[in-house]
Amino acid sequence: MNSxxxxxxxxxxxLNKNIEYSKNVTVSLLSKIRILKEGKLILNENSVIYDGCxxxxxxxxxxxxxxxxxxxxxxxxxxxxxxxxIGDNVLIAEKTSIFASNHQxxxxxILINNRAVISKGxxxxxxxxxxxxxxxxxxxxxxxGCVIGGEVL
Length: 153
Hints:
Helix content is about 10%, strand content about 35%.
């Protein structure tokens, strides 16, 4: 019974026209998805988003590839008029944050909150493993097969 209710809720959750999803997509009910009308979220087959994640497409494109796993407590933010592209077979470990925009630093006479936002975008290619607690900022491309070391104590 609980499984049937979960499937119904997940089906209605994806009736947003700004979300495209393929078969076998799993998004935890304990995660949050934010998309503005100019934004788009694409979830490819067998992708999984675990508990406590914030997936923010905003006014941008956020694409998650096939067989990609986003583990607990991750933040993915596509930024403002930007792109966050995550390839196929990518593993993103817990507490990782990815931000595809940043505030401009050249305008020193303007308050930080009023400065322009710049967005170069982020591309994470196929077969990548991002370790626990990583922070990936705007303008980065991670090539095929890379392992990004996480938080080590």
